[in-house]
Amino acid sequence: MELDATTCERARLSRDARFDGRFFIGVKTTGIYCRPVCPVRAPRADNTTFYASAAAAEAGFRPCLRCRPETAPGTPAWSGTSTTVGRALRLIAEGALDEGSVDALAERLGVGSRHLSRLFMKHLGASPSGVAQTRRLHNAKKLIDATDLPMVQVALSAGYHSIRRFNTHIKNTYGCSPSNLRTKANDRHVDGYQFRLNFRPPYDWQGMIGFLGRHATTGVELVEGSSYSRSIDVDGTVGTFTIDLPSDENCLRCSIRITESKHLIRIIERIKRLFDLSADSTEISRCLQRDAGLKPLVQANPGLRIPGGWDAYEMTVRTIIGQQVSVAGANTTTARLVRAYGSVLTDDGPLDRLFPTADSLSRLDSASAGMPVARAETIKQLSMAVCRGDVCFDNSNDSDLLYRQLTAIKGIGPWTAGYVAMRAMGDPDVFPRSDLVLPKMAGHLFGTAISEPELLQRSENWRPWCAYAAMYLWQMATDQKNRR
Q1: Which residues, including other chains, have CB under 8 Å from residue 294's CB and lie 6 or more apart?
Q2: Rounded to an integer, what distance in angstroms lies between the CA atom of residue 147 and that of residue 173?
Q3: Residue 74 phi, psi (nearest 5)
Q4: From start to end of 130-169, where are the E strands?
Q5: 123 — phi, psi (to 5°)?
Q6: Sorting pLDDT into bands at 50, 70 and 90, what band is 186?
Q7: What is the pLDDT of residue 249?
């Protein structure tokens, strides 16, 4: 990513939170790199260098202990510019390079390893291996600061295969052992694991929590006031998490209660995607406001994000259930399915079920599922396809491949496949053109009736953020409904 030195310098001096995570600052006199929001006295301009990612800065500088670069929002340098880099980063965040090689990662993405390395250097200023190494270091620092886990568990959870390598990396970077680094931390948990997940403002939390609340599945999800909770199962690690927004802070407060810490980092990464924390609202708004018709809507809803899906398979099932029925009706049917086919998490409390697996719903009784038989059969066929491997929700997949896999199943059309790619796969440029609400809202907004082909043509002006434009139009429909 090409950085504009003038813009970066202004953001550095003003400590503008909108640029947090968009670039990092290397300070030559101290050998430390910082976030733009670092509270320490700003160094002279001629002593600073700007980097597009923490991994690029890591090559010559060590992380600041005051602003903690490991807590910065995800770097959006690749967003909307390189789908391959975006897919690679999601896989790296899930540990692809902890278990495999760059060659294997490139093969999963359908490109050569040299080409993948060139893309990473272009967009992030670092190699895939460098990004993975920085990720491991940052994950370890988060766990050291926020948990009381033994250092062996910290190392394994962060992605290190060797405690010796973990100790060496920490000591070489921070100048002290992991245990000494922990003595400097003051954030300790008393009920579960507590984390603060930073984002770039603005963030429309009420819009996010309102959307999730309207679509919440009883027994699996719970929205109370301004907090969101749900049950989770990550490769056998089960539990719950709760998210809320502290006042006057650019972060979400996260409490995770799980049976073991093995997949703690994976859970955090999935929560970040669920709440779209890596989005750059400033850049998205700048792009969408170029359309004069859309501009008032964007200005009226600053920081609108795309609510993600905790699990892509779950999101697909829920989307199928919601075809041609009201949101309330879909929620009732989904809750009934969860009670019948979901595993029991606890005997009491509002979050007492896990969402059914593909294996359990592959045995769905279509005649007694509480929905049209054809729709139940679609869910059953989807589940069987997932079990066979014909449908794969792997983060290495692009939206086009997922689209083809899903639409090959009878009962899944373009709208369902697009909606899943938008919410579950995090594709920012998907536009669910066959949605019935979007042309209607666009007609109100632009002052004239607009057909689906005309709306699709106009959406070309919103690229690469078409999914966000759709969210703004859906929000407009919700606001109109609430005013009635």
Answers
A1: 288, 445, 462, 469, 472
A2: 20
A3: -55, 140
A4: none
A5: -95, -25
A6: very low
A7: 84
Residue 138, token pair as written in the block = 């940052």
Catalytic residue among 8, 20, 34, 429: 34
Task: Return the closest-CA partner of residue 65 out of 97, 99, 31.
Answer: 31
Write down the catalytic residue from 233, 280, 435, 466: 435
Confidence (pTM)? 0.92
pLDDT above 90 covers what percent of the chain? Answer: 74
Question: Is-catalytic flag, 34?
Answer: yes
Cβ–Cβ < 8 Å for 194, 143: no
Residue-level pLDDT at 460: 93
pLDDT band at 322 (very low <50, low <70, confident <90, very high): very high
Closest to 311 (Cα-Cα) out of 234, 363, 364, 253: 234
> Does 287 qualify as catalytic in the annotation?
no
In the chain, the domains with their CATH numbers are 5-71 (3.40.10.10), 83-183 (1.10.10.60)
pLDDT at 206 over 70: yes
User: Which residue matches tokens 């892509």?
Assistant: 312
Tell me the pLDDT tens digit for each residue of 125-145: 999 999 999 999 999 999 999
Report the range of poorest mean pLDDT among 99-113, 282-296, 309-323, 383-397: 383-397
Give CA–CA dist 345/220, Å, rounded: 9
What is the enclosing helix (H) or strand (E) of 238? strand 237-244
Amino acid at 255: S
Q: Which tokens go with 318?
A: 């829920």
Looking from the CA of 317 toward its CB, the CA atoms found within 13 Å total 34
The pairing of strands 24-27 and 48-51 is antiparallel
What CA–CA distance (Å, rounded) separates 387 from 357? 10
CB 473 within 8 A of CB 441: yes
Phi, psi of 340 (to 5 degrees): -85, -35
User: Cα–Cα distances in Å, from 312 out to 253, 266, 425?
Assistant: 24, 15, 7
